[in-house]
Amino acid sequence: MSTGANGLEGVVVADTALSDVDGERGELWIRGEPVERLAVRHAFAEVLGLLTTGELPEPTDGRIPSLLSRGRSLAHRRLSQLGDAIDQPNAMDALRAGVAHYRAADLGPGDEAAAVLAGVVATLAAAWACRQRGEELPEPDPAAGHADDVLRLLGARPGPAGRALDAYWIAVIDHGLNASTFAARVVASTGSDLISAVTAAIGALKGPLHGGAPGPVLDMLDAIGSEPSAEPWLRQELAAGRRIMGMGHRIYRVRDPRALVLEQALSRYRQALGQGADPVVRRLELARHVERVATRLLSERHPSRPLAANVEFFTAVLLEAIGVPRSLFSAMFAASRVVGWCAHVAEQRASGRLIRPASRYVGARSGAAPAA
Ligand code: COA
To answer: Which residues of the chain have pLDDT under 50?
Structure first.
């Protein structure tokens, strides 16, 4: 029997028709569609519909946008009932506490719940950012697109930034049996409710080895500052035994395909900004240089274990460029991945099987077993 000491690496725990990650080829498929194509041709609301129902809605179909809007309004209305529950130093703790206030019945049936909850989570994240600045959350606008409205709520500019946020949310909507999705499926497999599964998943996503890496990626770019400092800085970190954030992945043995999706979204955003794009261009050039140096240094240290940039590397650059504060990066990730969690909870329920692995006892025993 496998001992699990390898962190369940390579162990298949569930069948899924939601997403497929090919770590050797660097591919991510959402319901059979390559993520690159979805991010270029479709809106987040459409991909949300695809993931939760298996069908891509028409771009003109208003069902999902209105469910997202319902989630934003619900979160705004309920804010006063949360008291100081979301006034926590870490946005992910605020999300966990905020989401825990809901009951599954508040969210509507089946696939509706995923869209409403995505609206709730994004709005709670924006509310947290406003409260940190001592401001009130503005009223959501039901006529606005989801990404545009969320940016406006948190005090950033909609427009081209909204399209970039949409592409980011598509890139991270689902990703096989990552740690937070596994946590959600374990909770769902016990017969527990959706909110319990989602709060468990938020807890798992908070960790720096999973969704908590993009903030530290920006800290790293700040600390490096300019291209000539990249190599000495990275060497020093590695010599001190620290991990380079945004590099390496449990599944991918090549560059994470979502890094390219985000780079392309950044390029489109840059073009839309025109003259005003200089800071974005400088940040992107520094990030690309740091990625190249980090990839080289990691391959020298681990010649048989390819370690390349993961999604968090360019998440940091994209979210910073569109005006999302770095303390909110993991919460913005959750605002999309919550859709994947909900879809996996539904799939797990349909399978009906309790997830209950075994452990190997390696502790001591006192004396002989008592006679039966
Ligand atoms: N920087 C430096 N070394 C790294 C590294 C990184 N980012 N990622 C992996 N390594 C090293 C490990 O220390 C290990 O070295 P060792 O064999 O000398 O102990 C070796 O590479 C193998 O890594 P392993 O621990 O098997 O990788 P994993 O599958 O458990 O970890 C991550 C995957 C994502 C947790 C890991 O790559 C990491 O910590 N990355 C940084 C955090 C991050 O970006 N997280 C977001 C993921 S989307």
So the answer is: none
